[in-house]
Every structure is written in structure tokens, then in C-alpha cells.
Amino acid sequence: MCASCTRLSEALDRFRQRAGDLVLPDGEPCHGDDSLLWAPKGRANLVTGHRRNSVTGNAYCERQLAGPNPGAPNQCAPCRHHWEEAEVVRQTYTLPHMRTQAAGWENRTLDVFDDRASSLRSGVAYTLSGCAEVHFVVAVADRGGESHTDLLVYLPAEDRVADVRIRRDRLVAIQRPGSSPVSNRVTL
Question: What global pTM score does this model have?
Fold first, then answer.
């Protein structure tokens, strides 16, 4: 071996020996903060925060949002009104429906596979590193040009419906109902 290959081989051997000591950073927080207010895009009043609709990615008052605005002391009145209406629907219809779905999930045959978060669709469940809880996907807002996918999920351990924002390229373990085998028999 030449001197360059020998040095490279030694460096790789040292790296392999130290690799056991390396610690990967924790993943991003899993569940969204329902009380977080957001700032609108462009020049705007930063004193008034907006509620974010995870299904559309915009504020409930339909303004485009730039990012979180946790210091906003006031809340946009139209956002609050529409959010309260959406919360009533979540509590009255979505939550009981998802409880039923989750209860029957354990009795089903499931296909489990690893894929990126961008492949999540409503009707599947997933888990990810850093959070052992199963997330049942209610709705997905995947705007192709963005780096994140916004989800509305049911969390059975907390018995609530929550907004989740996850990086599109994050690896998740997806569970979906298994496909029933198709019979090839012909009945005469």
C-alpha cells in the first residue's frame, strides 16, 4: 500500500474505535405546542400572534405565516374564533373517531416498514426515534417545496389530537393495515 492509503486506513481504524463513544443529538421535539402563536409574513404587527392551522400551513385567518412568535401578548380575534370552532370539531367528531380507530388497530394485521416522513398519509400510524408513542395520522399537509410536513395526529396515550411538524426527510417507522391476501381460486 502507498503512504496515502496507509494513513487513510489508520484514520478509518481510529474512527471506528471511537465511533462507539459518539452520541447522536436528540431529534426535534415531536408534538407541537397548541398554545404557540405565529407571526405573519412581511412587515406586520408582532404584538398580535396568529393561530396556525396545520392542515393549510397558514393562520386560521388565512394569512401566510413566517414563524413562531411566542412573545406575542395578543391573539388575532379571527384566528381565535376559527380555532375555537375547529377545536369543537376535533373534540366532538375527530377524537371519538380516532379513539375507535386506535382501539381496533392492535387487532389488525399490520405492515410495518421504515420510510421518510414525506410518505405519511392519513389512515396510517407511525413512531419515530425519541418518542415511543404511536401517532395515528388524521390529516397531512405536505407542501412539496418546504422542508417540513405538517400533520394532524391522534395521540392515544395523551388522548388528544395534536399538530405535528416533522422534517420531510426524517426516518419514521410506518404502520398500515396489511393487505389481505387475494385468492387465486376459481369457483365453478
Answer: 0.68
